[in-house]
Write a structure and sequence with these properties.
Blueprint lengths: L3 H25 L1 H35 L2 H17 L5 H11 L3 H11 L5 H11 L4 H13 L2 H21 L20 H16 L3 H35 L4 H13 L7 H9 L1 H9 L7 H14 L1 H12 L7 H25 L19 H31 L1
Helix pairs in contact: 2-10, 3-4, 3-9, 4-5, 5-6, 5-15, 6-8, 6-16, 7-8, 7-13, 8-14, 8-16, 10-15, 11-12, 12-13, 12-14, 13-14, 14-16
Organism: Laceyella putida
Keywords: Membrane, Transmembrane, Transmembrane helix
Pfam families: Gate
């Protein structure tokens, strides 16, 4: 068995060689590096920054206002039995599903830093909350690459059902690890108990509204700058690695595996690109020969989106590095998600294809969607805000009477 010192020395040499190789390639092909860096910057500035900044700021403010504690009480009966994570994980899952990567990892790290989850619970939580956002699936992939909203519905269902399946499977991760302390079982209506917990958390936070907004904006911009650096770096690496032909052997291996599973070998290049960056991998998969059945293209796209790409892996690893949450469970979960979502795509395609042909070929993801579900969510949000106002007003009156 390899000695720890020797293993550490080999790791140092390997990392140093990789860094040296990248530096040499950058010096040899500066024009290609510059162009791919500009491409990554364009993706970050035009899509990622405006799409994620409001979510990052809002999520930080919601945590300061105690919304995590509110959802922790409310979702405890669901999240702990199903996924073996506290109810506060429901907040991470909801925001992660809406905003996409790497929001799930960022919020999981924040919960771990605040001591609301254990290390093992954080590893379970980040494994199924690091998903692609609907803006990417519907806007970039479905409408941008396939010019079909029907495709977006199939991909989204496969992706999010796959995430839930991964979350259920990851509940068996570290089965003997002690869980975090559940909230005490108190008498009373669960919604009122959740509102009290939210109010106490806001008071314990102690920051004024101005301080909270300022710190939320600062934290959001810093995180997005980090994400932008990763996107640009991996855009350069993807282009240069393909340009110098390093991936040729890997593409041949992927092609052999695809042929074994009766898939066209022409998908090999798309999968290889998707290993690094999901946008490029999805685009190449959609642009393969028109003779290839659509279901096969969607299966490969689901595989690429489920794996997330090494660019997002690096972002997640960077965010959880501030805690004791380990990266390996997340990596294993990405492989599971890629496999499950691909299988679900094959199963869902014949069931949904005949029911979705009447949908428009394109839809603006920036327009508000008026559906019964959306209307119900609006009324639910308004009701919660109204009840919260009544509860806070009652507490103020009670405090005034006591003084």
């Amino acid at each position: 068995m390899m000695q720890p010192l020797l293993r550490s020395q080999l790791k140092t040499v390997t990392f140093a060689f990789i860094a040296f190789f990248i530096a040499v390639v950058l010096l040899m092909y500066p024009e290609q590096a510059f162009r791919s860096s500009i491409r990554g910057l364009s993706i970050w500035w035009d899509v990622v920054f405006p799409a994620l900044l409001p979510f990052f700021i809002t999520a930080e403010m919601m945590m300061g206002f105690g919304v995590v504690h509110f959802m922790g009480i409310l979702l405890e009966p669901l999240m702990r039995p199903l996924f073996r994570v506290p109810g506060a994980g429901g907040f991470v899952m909801a925001v992660g599903l809406i905003s996409g990567n790497p929001m799930g990892a960022k919020l999981t790290s924040r919960l771990r830093e605040q001591g609301l989850i254990s290390r093992e619970e954080g590893e379970r939580l980040v494994s199924f909350t690091s998903t692609a956002g609907p803006l990417f699936i519907f806007g970039a992939v479905a409408v941008g690459f396939f010019e079909s909203t029907s495709v977006g519905i199939i991909l989204a269902l496969a992706h999010y059902l796959g995430a839930i399946a991964v979350g259920f499977l990851m509940r068996f991760h570290e089965p003997k690890a002690p869980p975090s302390k559940p909230p005490g079982k108190k008498a009373g209506f669960i919604l009122l108990r959740a509102l009290r917990a939210m109010h106490r958390a806001r008071l314990q936070d102690g920051r004024t509204l101005g301080q909270l907004i300022g710190q939320a904006v600062t934290s959001a911009v810093q995180t997005l700058l980090l994400i932008g650096g990763f996107i640009m770096m991996f855009s350069v690496l993807t282009q240069l690695v393909n340009y110098v032909g390093v991936t040729t052997l890997f593409i041949k291996g992927i092609a052999w595996i695809l042929e074994f599973f009766s898939f066209p070998s022409s998908f090999a290049e798309a999968i290889m690109a998707g290993v690094f960056e999901i946008t490029l991998g999805s685009q190449l998969a959609s642009a393969t020969s028109p003779a290839i059945p659509l279901v096969l293209k969607l299966t490969i796209v689901s595989l690429v989106i489920g794996f997330n790409g090494l660019s997002i892996h690096a972002q997640v690893a960077s965010m959880i590095s501030r805690t004791d949450i380990r990266y390996a469970p997340y990596f294993i979960a990405r492989i599971l998600h890629a496999a499950i979502s691909s299988i679900l795509t094959i199963l869902l395609f014949p069931l949904l294809q005949k029911h979705l042909h009447h949908l428009p070929t394109a839809v603006s993801v920036f327009q508000p969607v008026q559906t019964p579900l959306w209307t119900g969510l609006e009324w639910t949000s308004m009701s919660i805000l109204f009840l919260s106002g009544i509860f806070i007003l009652r507490e103020r009156i009670r405090q005034g009477s006591a003084s």
